[in-house]
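Exam review. A common question shows you a sequence with its structure tokens and asks you to describe the fold in words. Practice with the pair below. Do the first one on your own.
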Amino acid sequence: MPRKSNPTSIRLSTDLERRLRHLAELKGTSYQTLLKEFGLERVYEEEKRLGVV
């Protein structure tokens, strides 16, 4: 079965990672999941702004 996602690597500042981990803990999720959710939301907003969707 093919993967539905691809692993990727990005560099985050120590401060950004700390803040993401804190927010994720408050929301009861992992920081990676939270980062994916933020990315998805932001891409959608840009697509709307550009009239792609």
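Now try the second one, then compare your answer with the model answer below.
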Amino acid sequence: MNERKPIRSFPADIPCEAIMDSVADGVFTVDLNWVITSFNRAAAEITGVPAEQAIGRTCREVFHSSICDGACAIGACLAEDRTVSNRSISIIRTDGVRLPVSISAAPLRDGRGRVIGGVETFRDLSELQLMRKELQGLHSLEDIRTRSRAIIRILDILPQIAESLSTVLVLGESGTGKELLARAIHNLSPRKTKPFVAVNCGALPENLLESELFGYKAGAFTDARRDKPGRFGLAQGGTIFLDEIGDLPLALQVKILRVLQERSFEPLGAVRSEPADVRVVAATNRDLAAMVERGEFRQDLYYRLNVVQLRLPPLRERPEDIPLLAAHFVDKRNALMGKDIQGVSEDVMGLLARYAFPGNVRELENIIEYAFILCSGGFIQMEHLPEYLQPADLGAAHEHTNPRTMEDIRHQAVIEALARHKGRKRPAARELGISKDTLRRILQRAGSG
């Protein structure tokens, strides 16, 4: 009869650190104050942060994760005394690259079974994602995901555009992702370590726009007690994104032209100009060429801005991106809210494919966010969609020209929940997964509180 071979164990003198460093996945532990207490070799290689720099700092400072602002995996473990397995999130490496990772977490206990912190493992998914994209015919750059040939052509030349430092004009309807493209240009440029400053020229009052853009000196007007830098000053060395530049008043168009021509600007109340070491990326949903013909936009500024022109097509012109973007927004909400929604049902996807999306990509993201309020698990179904997208109203939805804001959609969800609970706020808030105070604020902002 064969004798059973003895089970070999690790020698007692092998330190725990050596075992941890032999693991291919990143592993780290934190105490109850979220301070990192151990950090293995793989964790350092994946993040680019040496162990000696990570230990003693909070995990938020090291990882800058997509779930640090509300759906922390270790936080859920400690609060609910449970494990979290294989959640897909993203972290930001020290070189600024966003990295997709899969994480698992569990409470960390001492010899007596008391919780003294948490342990998390994470695995780099970037190569796996790259293989999936190649198999699916998916193109992506930064946070832009597409199968649209028109956008793929833009992504193919975007690195060269970013390197050139030329002024860029991005054209497209509201909600098509113009700021996302501007951020990608900045992040791919030699200026990526410097500030990216976004300004919505149509959202600021005309009488404040000049001081917001160029700043002012103390004494420039009655309440100017000290110097205040403008957006161009804050963007020194980096990139300024002038969104909705078609709404810029003619008087300020002259000043923007001077910045582009002379690379300098003059704050209100200043006696001398200041250098403007800033790259300008402008965007608009208006027809600037037609505005020039009508005398509503300066021709010389138009030509200065229009060095490189990029046009983002609306979502209705690239329906092949709807399933891709819907899946992306589902993954994003799952990470932020700690849910496990599987995706959208076939009926919902068919409806979305037929919808005209006047609000473009932003409206699709709002629809998915609304559905997450009502959907507790599984697939997003018809009943989880906003009322204006329900099948009975689909004809009206095609004629819908003023897409609802997220504030409108949240308010609608609250009203419907209150109706189901006969006006009782606490159970309505519980159903929506929000606090009673949040519910009350949503009603007050809509004027129905």
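Model answer, second protein: The radius of gyration is 26 Å. The first strand starts at residue 26 and ends at 31. Full marks require stating both points clearly.
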